[in-house]
Design brief:
With 217 residues, the chain is an alpha+beta fold. It has one domain (21-214): Clam (outer membrane lipoprotein receptor (LolB), chain A). Helices cover 15% and strands 44% of the residues. It has 3 helices and 11 strands, in the order ααββββββαβββββ. The longest helix has 13 residues, at 5-17. The radius of gyration is 21 Å and the shape is globular. The termini are far apart.
């Protein structure tokens, strides 16, 4: 028996109103395409971290040049005035703030003096590192469309972590991709329901003309 035309139209209207499962690769594919066009960028990263009863709030000035040049300055928070430079490899060149700012030391990229409260090294905050976490996921990735974050319309990629040992106990990572730039504007990490780290990317400027000489090591 043929379905009446009005019934078919009604069914289509109902179906269009129901939420559709997002395809996990859509926002990531756009982000990877956008990032392929990025040669360098600068940004301000507002960072919040929790480890046990300790809390660390910092604001970083961040500069990046492909393939692996990073300059980080602590604008506010613990260690204000300090900074570090990484040019690839397993060492960073860093300095403390205040009276010791003129003394530069080269230490392991994983040295406690060169990592954040939760042990993140300087290279983990790059756009490439954020996207690689979802490009080669150690767990299951899903996508939710049209989430507003800090006034910016985004798509959310959420990674349910399978191997907790490699993620310092983190069970979920959420990455928010801007609809405008198709680049990350916020990353959040959770242990269970507790937010243990958030990184808000602001004042991002793409392809500013940075050179290797801008990253004195």
């Amino acid at each position: 028996m043929k379905t009446p035309l009005f019934a078919l139209c009604a069914a289509l209207l109902v179906a269009s109103a129901l939420p559709h499962p997002a395809v996990a690769s859509d926002a990531l594919a756009q982000a990877l395409e956008a990032y392929a066009k990025v040669n360098d960028y600068t940004a301000t990263i507002i960072d919040h971290e929790v480890k046990g009863t300790d809390v660390q709030d910092r604001t970083y000035g961040y500069a990046f040049l492909k393939p692996s040049y990073v300059k980080l300055d602590i604008i506010s928070g613990p260690g204000r005035g300090g900074g570090a430079v990484w040019t690839g490899g397993d060492q960073v060149s860093g300095h403390q703030g205040g009276l010791l700012s003129g003394i530069h030391l080269k230490v392991s990229i994983h040295d406690g003096r060169a990592t954040s409260l939760r042990g993140d090294s300087i290279d983990t905050g790059t756009i490439g590192a954020m996207l690689d976490m979802f490009k080669n996921p150690k767990g299951t990735v899903t996508e939710s469309d049209d989430k507003t974050v800090d006034g910016i319309l985004t798509d959310e990629l959420s990674l349910k972590v399978a191997d907790l040992a490699t993620m310092q106990g983190v069970t979920r990572v959420d990455l928010y991709i801007s609809h405008t730039t198709h680049l990350p504007v916020r990353r959040e990490r959770y242990v269970g329901d507790q937010l243990v780290k958030s990184e808000q990317v602001t004042n991002q400027k793409i392809n500013t003309g940075l050179k290797p000489s801008d990253f004195p090591f």
